[in-house]
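User: Quick one: structure for sequence A, then sequence B.

Assistant: Sequence A:
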Amino acid sequence: MVGMTSPDLSTSTMTAFTLDTDAREALFTSARSAIAFDDRPVEPELVTRAWDLAKWGPSSMNTQPLRLVVARSEAARAAVIDAAMPGNRPKLEQAPLLLIAARDDRFHDQHEITAPGFAGFHERFETNPEMRASLAASGAMLQLGYLIIALRAEGLALRPYGGFDSAALDAALMPAGWGSEVLLGVGYPAPGDHGAGERRGRIPAELGIREL
């Protein structure tokens, strides 16, 4: 991607990957949380294709609590930007497409799609709202990780945002039972500077992995 540099992976002990270097760079090492984007609009089919790829990622009991609101109209965009923290509003305004990653607190209503023949599945979650709410939130965030990679696989750049008035956004745009979790500014990579600044460090494996 233009304007992106890869970190030095020469110290890695891994010598072979299934994905080639270009794919790894596009999905991980060169991808950035972009603020600046190309002017091209994001075609609706790209979001659909990314969803249809990301939905295959593993999840707890095959539950699918992630929901996505595409704020394509001017009114929807304005609602997203107004709900964001003041410092994030100019950044969101630069994104050609705004997405709202949400959780569906009644994800278990779709059990005949995700868990057909699973006796007692719906009743298990219906009678335990605390467990249902916990899985809705954690499961949606897990699926969001898959979706971010899938959007990158479509050649898109994006930046996730927290820090917004979820209650106001839910009242403005969310269907009943959906709760906003993360905002995404999405677009094609800018031909020049991505606006994300210098690449910051990451915790190495020796600090993040413990072998027992």
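Sequence B:
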Amino acid sequence: MTETWDSAGYIASSRYRLTVCEYLSEHGSGLPSRIATETDLAQPHVSRALSELRDQGIVELLVPESQQKGRLYGLTDLGELAYERVALDQRVDLTVVDADGFPEPELVSELQTTYSDSLRAIAWCEPSRAWVHFSSPSLYDEYDEETLKTVVSTLANEEPLDEPLGDLPAGGPEYIAVGLEKALVVRVPLNDDVKLLVSVKKAFDTTIEGLVDTCVQTTSAVSLDADD
């Protein structure tokens, strides 16, 4: 399941990989030139996406390696499962907000203060809505709307990781970290309805457990203040 989740995140993090997988899912197989023509993508982008996906075991070549013309590609079994995971999660209502518009502004402030050099983005994910705050506008410019929506919803919605582990001897919530091309994303389930995604630089040099503790403690403190 984790392999499928990692592969889904890899597909979702590039609109070119996402489009290629969507085409292969719908058509069963495809030639790079035909995929490019029918998706309005430049062929170099399609060829690069196919190469990347093949390296990850998501796409396979369906003809002999020695065949130079008519190189037909299709999704592997892993690729089919991963793309299905992505396709199921493209329904979230997503809003990009500044710190004041984030559901927990105090969390934004705490993370920016503690991890300012590493923090890329924070997403607050509920069952059908998500709010995303980027640490700088230039990071937001890296994503088109559909890719951002797909990345967030895919990374937020893996059912076997939904339940906190508070009742187990280890204590604390269950979290998972997945490495994307430019970032490390840590997912923390805060309760049954809310999952937090924190994106940091891939060369994050602080313990993930410390990041998770900061998220949990800050949101818990805010909840206690609200109850008072």
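Strands lie at 59-61, 73-75, 93-96, 119-125, 129-134, 176-179, 183-189, 195-201. The CA atoms of residues 34 and 43 lie 9 Å apart.

User: Thanks, that's what I needed.
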